[in-house]
Each structure stands twice: as structure tokens, then as C-alpha cells.
Amino acid sequence: MSVPSTIQQQINTLRQELNKHSYNYYVLDAPTIPDSEYDRLMRELETLEAQYPETITSDSPTQRVGGQALSQFAEFVHKQPMLSLNNAFSQEELNDFDRRIREKLNLDSIEYTAEPKIDGLAISLHYENGILVAAATRGDGTHGEDVTQNIRTIKIIPLRLQGDDYPAILEVRGEVYMPLAKFNAYNQQQKQKGERVFANPRNAAAGSLRQLDPRMTASRPLSMTCYGTGIIEGGTLPDKYSDIVACLKRWGLPTSAYFKVVQGAQGCWDYYEDLHKQRAKMPFDIDGVVYKVNSNKQRDIMGFISRAPRWALAHKMPAQEVMTELLAIDIQV
Ligand code: NAD
């Protein structure tokens, strides 16, 4: 079946739009539309591409992770790609995710972990013999920005791990973010000085971390929560992610106080409802919950699609943001 030209035209327009917004968001840290609108455009493109698979190209926004790295930073190549997450917007989509995993693993029930999806930016930390030697942004998933000097200014990130049972080479991944109270206080201060404010905590974190002068980053109140590992050499980690999180905590790395092991789709849903109720009182901005298959052996069987693992799901919460004041570019380039 050939693709009607009106459909191809619609697809091209959506791709152009999404690429433009992706650039504003990831490269400039200055989005011009709400995330919910971006998600809606992405869904529209995904639906059309699912109907007409022959239109899918490797450079389509549906196949790509994030944006490109800023050339002002040294490039950092991720040996293990930093991927995105598949999204769900309803309980039905969560149940579909669980059903696909149960069918593939041939199990009646799956053990998952659940944790908040903090709205910040993904960072990879590299420890060698317990010493922080490098840190990088996700970039396009393979090519990130080397932000080692800036990361070293964030006090919650240990420069040296505690204990002595960590792998010789350990890559830890997590989200750098600006706590809400600090974000509000920072914007208030900026307003009083008549200076630029950040559009939301996500842009505040990304704009603050991607400064060419680490002293600027040091002056911004950033924090981090770790949610996974990457390259491991010269040692092993437990099979279960929940046990790995316990190791990270023991080694002095910041982990989520909201992290929980849950059973099956119902356990995931209960966690989601509970966190949704707590959302307004949480000390940081979240845009959903992330569920992950707990066992790494099971994750290996599930594998990946081009831009996301099949064993994890970001269950989005309804948007809270209002795009009122937009930040002009806050990167010293
Ligand atoms: P994503 O934000 O949906 O999910 C992947 C990211 O989640 C990871 O890279 C990581 O940084 C983060 N994350 C937070 N907590 C996590 C946890 N506990 N475990 C694992 N990962 C965790 O995907 P994405 O590809 O980074 O970005 C897509 C989103 O960005 C869209 O949903 C859209 O809302 C937003 N966006 C908005 C615009 C805009 O113009 N407003 C443009 C581009 C993208």
C-alpha cells in the first residue's frame, strides 16, 4: 500500500515541528511549548508511523533520544547508550506494558520497582576505584557533553565512594535537578534583581549545569538522585535493581527516598495513585512514575527498542506546568 501524499506531508510537518521543539528544549534549555503539547505531537507522529511503517526513517524524532550536545563542551562518548523511556498515559497502557512482559517471560506476575520520575536532566557519573573521574550529559544518547567540573561542584555527589566493595569501574546514572523550594527562591531573587527567571525546575537544572564556568554551576542549588548503573568492570553487582540501589546508597550515592519494590501491574498502579496524592507536597518537581523490571536477568531477556528499554515505563502524570515566563538562553556561549 503506498502512502497517501497528504499523510506523508502530515508526517513531515510533525517531524519538523518536533525537531524544532527538541532543539529548543534540549540544546537551548528554552522550550516554547508545554511538555504535554510536545507529547501530543509525538503521539500523533507515532500513530501515523504505526499505520504506515514504511514511512519510518532512522532520523525520525520517534527513533531518537534527546538532542545534540553543545559543541562548547568536550564530547563524551557513552560506551553504553543512555536511552529514553517509553511512555504511558493511562492504567490501560500500564496493563499492556505488564502483559507484554508477562507473555515474553512466560510468568504470571512480575516484580517491578517504582520511583518518581524527577523532572531534571540525566547524568552519567564514572567512578574508577571509587574516585569520580568523569561526568556527562545524555546528549543524543551516544554523544553527551563532558560536564565533569560542573558536576564536581554539586555537594550531594560524592567525589570518593564509601566502603571498598564497589566495582573498579562503576558508571552510575541519575537525574540532576533543582529542588522546588530552591527553584522558587532563586527565581524570586532574580525577579527582585530584575534578571531572567527560569521557566521551570527542569530548565533551571539543565541551564545551571550546562554552564561553561563551573563557578556558575556551584552557585546554583542543584541536587541529584541515582536511578541506575551503566558500565561495570572489575566487580559485579547483584541481579536485583533494588539490591543495587541499596549498594549505591551504602557507597554514599544519593538514592530516592520514594523508591519501592512492587508486585505486578496492580502494585505499580497503587504506587502511582499514592505518589499522585503526595505530588503537591514533594520537595521536587515530578512528571510521573518510572516502573522497571527488578531482575536484571529478566531485563536482558526483554531487551530494547531503538530509543528505550522494553523493561521500563514512564507513567506520566497530568501536566502541572504553565508556560508563563520563558527563560532566554542561559548558557554562556
Ligand atoms: P522522558 O523524559 O520521557 O524519559 C527519559 C528520562 O527520564 C531519562 O533520560 C531520565 O533523565 C529521566 N528520569 C527521571 N527519573 C528517572 C528514573 N527514576 N529512572 C529513569 N529515568 C528517569 O524522555 P526524554 O526523551 O528525556 O524526553 C521526552 C520528554 O521531554 C517528553 O515527554 C516531553 O514532555 C519533554 N520535551 C518537551 C519539549 C518541549 O518543547 N516542551 C521538547 C522536547 C522534549
Explain this structure.
With 333 residues, this protein is of the alpha+beta class. It folds into two domains: 5-63, Orthogonal Bundle (Helix Hairpins); 75-316, D-amino Acid Aminotransferase, Chain A, domain 1 (2-Layer Sandwich), CATH 3.30.470.30. Helices cover 35% and strands 20% of the residues. It contains ten helices and eleven strands. It has helices spanning 5-27, 35-51, 91-105, 148-151, 180-192, 201-209, 214-218, 241-250, 264-278, 296-302, and strands spanning 75-77, 87-88, 111-118, 121-128, 131-137, 143-145, 169-177, 223-233, 260-263, 286-293, 312-316. The strands form three sheets. Strands 2-11-10-3-9 form a five-stranded mixed beta sheet. The chain has a four-stranded antiparallel beta sheet with strand order 5-4-7-8. The protein has a two-stranded antiparallel ribbon with strand order 1-6. Helix 1 (5-27) runs antiparallel to helix 2 (35-51) and helix 3 packs antiparallel against helix 9 (264-278). It is globular and about 60 Å long. Nicotinamide-adenine-dinucleotide binds at residues 21-22, 24-25, 31, 33-35, 38-39, 65-66, 84-85, 87, 115, 117-118, 122, 138, 175, 227, 290, 314. Nicotinamide-adenine-dinucleotide is lined by residues 21-22, 24-25, 31, 33-35, 38-39, 65-66, 84-85, 87, 115, 117-118, 122, 138, 175, 227, 290, 314.
